[in-house]
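In response to the reviewer comment on reproducibility (Comment 2.3), we provide here a single inverse folding case reported in full, input and output, so that an independent group could reproduce the run without further information from us. The structure tokens appear first.
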């Protein structure tokens, strides 16, 4: 349950403009599409993907950090990690299992499979878009477990794009298509309230001291 009194209390601290911005942004957020980044070596690439999630309205991102550890660079993410829920997994198997339990189809993005080009991709269920490492692409584990494949059509000599560029292109294209559809893609009322409270807390300096005071006053 959301503590509505706490939310109202904290919203007295932030500006009305910031509160309104939160509400407007939450109306455009979705969990219907999410992304998973597998073992990206360069931190700026994973960070740029999270940034694209935030810019285009994806509320969640999944990072598989089996080989290279923490893959977020705050300077590249530019604060996006505050507004996107980042889930971290140590193994690909663990990540896929988590996403399947949440009802996602696993979609492998790869330049090596022509089964579905981006323009032809139909969103008929919740999808998790998997992006692989810079040199090797997605692991065989993802490719064998995938429910479908997705490719950006390219006409030049170069066969692939940087992961962060690929993610931005695909996320923008699919979120645009999703929001033109009749699918109920938005967050639930409870999810919106949860994020409203979370974002409000993250916007207030000395939030721990303020919360301590609030709970003392309302105990």
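Designed residues, in position order:
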């Amino acid at each position: 349950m959301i503590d509505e009194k706490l939310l109202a209390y904290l919203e007295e601290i932030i500006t009305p403009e910031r509160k309104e911005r939160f509400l407007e942004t939450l109306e455009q957020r979705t969990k219907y599409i999410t992304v998973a980044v597998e073992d990206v070596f360069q931190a700026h690439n994973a960070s740029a993907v999270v940034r694209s999630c935030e810019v285009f309205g994806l509320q969640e991102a999944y990072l598989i950090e089996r080989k290279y550890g923490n893959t977020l660079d705050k300077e590249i993410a530019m604060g996006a990690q505050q507004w996107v829920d980042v889930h971290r997994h140590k193994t690909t198997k663990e990540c896929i299992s988590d996403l399947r339990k949440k009802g996602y189809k696993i979609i492998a993005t790869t330049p090596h499979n022509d089964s579905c080009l981006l323009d032809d991709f139909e969103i008929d269920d919740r999808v998790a878009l998997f992006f692989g490492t810079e040199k090797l692409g997605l692991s065989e584990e993802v490719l064998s477990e995938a429910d479908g494949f997705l490719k950006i059509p390219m006409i030049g000599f170069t066969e692939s794009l940087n992961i962060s560029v690929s993610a931005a292109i695909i996320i923008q294209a699919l979120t645009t298509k999703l929001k033109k559809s009749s699918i109920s893609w938005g967050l639930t009322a409870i999810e919106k309230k949860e994020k409203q409270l979370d974002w409000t807390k993250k916007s207030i300096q000395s939030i721990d001291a303020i919360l301590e005071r609030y709970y003392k006053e309302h105990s």
